[in-house]
Amino acid sequence: MLGADEQRSEVARLLTQISAEYEAAQRGLSGLSYGASRHDFIAARMENMGQLHNQLQSLVGDVAIAMIADQLSAVR
């Protein structure tokens, strides 16, 4: 079981990683590569975001998706 400080740190780490995956997927949309490799790259980023969301949800519950939405709105 994580202490309060460790949990906040883990939440911050997960949100930062989700932002990084989102930004990478966004860059993949505007990158120079086309076709299946581009799709695979973006799909992998989205799958990683899903796994990170599951980890975050296990720490904070259903509020995880709202936290992600807030985090990603700052990225745009």
Mean pLDDT metric: 88
Query: Main beta sheet: strand number and arrangement?
Result: none
Low-confidence stretches at least 5 residues in length (pLDDT < 50)?
A: none
Q: How many structural domains are formed by the residues?
A: 1
Structure description:
This protein is an all-alpha fold and 76 residues long. It has one domain. The chain has 3 helices and no strands. It has helices spanning 4-30, 36-60, 64-75. The longest helix has 27 residues, at 4-30. The relative contact order is 0.17. The mean pLDDT is 88.
How are the SSEs ordered, and which strands pair?
Elements: H1 4-30, H2 36-60, H3 64-75
Helix pairs in contact: 1-2, 1-3
How would you briefly describe this protein structure?
The protein has 76 residues and is mainly alpha-helical. The chain is built from 3 helices and no strands.
Task: List the main descriptive attributes of the protein structure presented here.
76 residues, mainly alpha
